[in-house]
Amino acid sequence: MTAQRVCALSELVQDEARRVEIDGVAMAVVLDSAGEVHAIGDTCTHGDISLSEGFIDGDTLECWAHGSAFSLRTGKPLNLPAYEPVPVFAVVIDGDDVLIDPDVKKPVG
């Protein structure tokens, strides 16, 4: 699959997550305070909770239900109760378009 447009960069609100879906793959897209756009899997690995409803702090996204925070760069959980990472997707900015390929995941690291 090739990268698909999910939204305009100008539609993203800094330090807020936006839920998008490509071919059944739900993602949380975040424009962080440094101006970088991230895309991670939208489902908390601790529970079936949408991460896009959570809270942004720097380069982390915290699940609103149980408080697990995930790195927007690696997908790794930074605290319990989650202990499994979420996928992190490569993001391409083309002009004002935010493009994501759900088949291209960044290595957890």
UniProtKB/TrEMBL annotation:
Coiled coil: none
Keywords: 2Fe-2S, Iron, Iron-sulfur, Metal-binding
Residue ranges constituting the Rieske domain according to the UniProt record: 4-100
Any Pfam family hit: Rieske
Superkingdom as given in the UniProt entry: Bacteria
Protein name (Swiss-Prot/TrEMBL): Non-heme iron oxygenase ferredoxin subunit
Source organism of this protein record: Microbacterium gallinarum
Entries under Gene3D superfamilies matching the protein: Rieske [2Fe-2S] iron-sulphur domain
